[in-house]
Amino acid sequence: MLPRQHLLKPPTFLALRLLSSSSVRSKSIFDIGTKVIANSDKAKYSDNKYITHPAFPHPKWTDEQVASVSYEHRPPKTAMDRFVFRCISTVRTTFDLVTGYKKPRTPEEKEHRFKGTRWEMTESKWLTRVIFLESVAGVPGMTAAFLRHLHSLRLMKRDKAWIETLLDEAYNERMHLLTFMKIGRPSWFTKVFVFAGQGVFCNLFFLMYLLSPRACHRFVGYLEEEAVSTYTHLIEELEAKRLPKFDGITVPEVAQLYWPELNEKSTFLDLIQRIRADESKHREVNHTLANLDQKEDRNPYAMQLPDVDKPQPTNDLKGKNRAGWERKDLIV
């Protein structure tokens, strides 16, 4: 017969013990957040001996130039533009809803920043978001360059320098991802979605680029508008000191070698400002490419024409048409 104290003990005691122990195990198994790597742990994930010089050197930008970057929108002008913009808006809204992201707009939201709700953006959620986005953002440039490369080989003629800029864009987006991978370690859950997202998006973009390169470049232009908006939100959070785990982050060596103005004293804010500037340049480039004749026009970003009496696109941040150049203003 059981002792009296065991008979009187509530029957849920054992269940609570089991639930407690299982919840501890579940926390490790189902922890889907991205872990911020402390500076003291960076040596564990170091692969610096494999770092090479950038294949596409990054232009040098000043602190004033990267700080001046802002969200700019190109209003849709054609039926194709409107369709593409609606697609981007739908994808963005769905992604934000699923991942628990909301940009504060009202005074109350800006004050409380959704504290304690599923919309609160922590350091872990920010890293998860940017790692996933950058894993997808590197697809369009490489896919478009691949198709144009095959087109050039098949027709045995030059590409008029589109391939170089598209490869540079893909390389730049991959450098963003590699940099973030040195700052945070994504969970298995994030990696699964990266695998699935890349597989679906790459094949869709491949097929769409065969059908309409112009629509694809417009799509990327609007996608980069959203990227600038997201990074602007992150910069606002950093400037307001709401993400303390990022304050002491050392900029990874791979980033210091890629962005010429970054060094061991640079901050996480310095890094994000440059990534946002990169996205703003992709916004300008893709909106411009979407305005060109896809088969006949040259890429105006690949070569600077001498003795030209009107402004033309450049690879720096000084251009006036940050939401894209119209074809009538270009020498193509």
Spell out the key features of this protein.
mainly alpha; single chain; two-stranded antiparallel ribbon; Ferritin; 11 helices; 332 residues; disordered N terminus
Can you characterise this structure?
It is found in: Mitochondrion inner membrane. It is an enzyme of class 1 (oxidoreductase). With 332 residues, the protein is an all-alpha fold. The chain has one domain (35-329): Alternative oxidase (Ferritin), CATH 1.20.1260. It is 57% helix and 1% strand. It contains eleven helices and two strands; from the N terminus they run ααβαααααβαααα. A two-stranded antiparallel sheet has the order 1-2. The radius of gyration is 24 Å and the shape is globular. Mean pLDDT is 88; it is low at 2-27.
Query: Going across the major beta sheet, what is the strand order?
Result: 1-2
Total strand count, please?
2
Shape: globular
What is the percentage of strand-forming residues? under 5%
CATH class descriptor name: Mainly Alpha
Structure class:
mainly alpha
Q: What is the terminal-to-terminal distance?
A: 95 Å
What is the CATH homologous superfamily assignment? Alternative oxidase
> How large is the radius of gyration?
24 Å
Label the CATH architecture: Up-down Bundle
